[in-house]
Amino acid sequence: MLYDGRMKTLIIRGGQAAVPSSLRDVIARGSTSVEERSAAEVDPAAAAEALAGVDRLVFWSAGDAGTAALAERSAAVERRERREAIVFVTTDDSARVKGLSDGELFVWPRDEDRLVMAFMTGA
Q: Above 90 in pLDDT, residue 104?
């Protein structure tokens, strides 16, 4: 399938922290459509379903462990499917998610420029 420029993005928001409006703007500019769900709404056993039908899966975490665990499960599915679809954005600069590369991990707002480039190039 040829890349047609359309990019469907799902944001999974963890904890009580809302996605900052400036981050939401970056995501929206690099996406054709954006849907948002709370991590509490996503069954951890259904990580493959979260990836189904989307081109990019963005996790927003203000340091909550549940969102990182969900991202880790999704990363395993991503590897199995040989896709690069996950972006993990956090306010915690020490956060690591098993299975995600440094290119998939962003600290907000420190990595804003890098995130803008990733979204504008379809990465």
A: yes
Structure tokens at 29: 């500019």
Task: Let me know if 28 is exposed, middle or buried by CB neighbors in 10 A (0-12, 13-18, 19+).
Answer: middle
pLDDT computed for residue 99 by the predictor: 92
Sorted by sequence, the CB contacts under 8 Å of residue 74 that are 6+ apart come out as: 47, 50, 51, 57, 59, 86
Residue 115: HSE in the Cβ half-sphere, 13 Å Cα cutoff: 25
99: nearest Cα among 80, 116, 114, 118: 80
What's the mean pLDDT in 1-25?
82
pLDDT more than 70, % of the chain = 93
Number of Cβ atoms within 10 Å of the Cβ of 11: 23
Count other Cβ atoms within 10 Å, centred on residue 13: 21
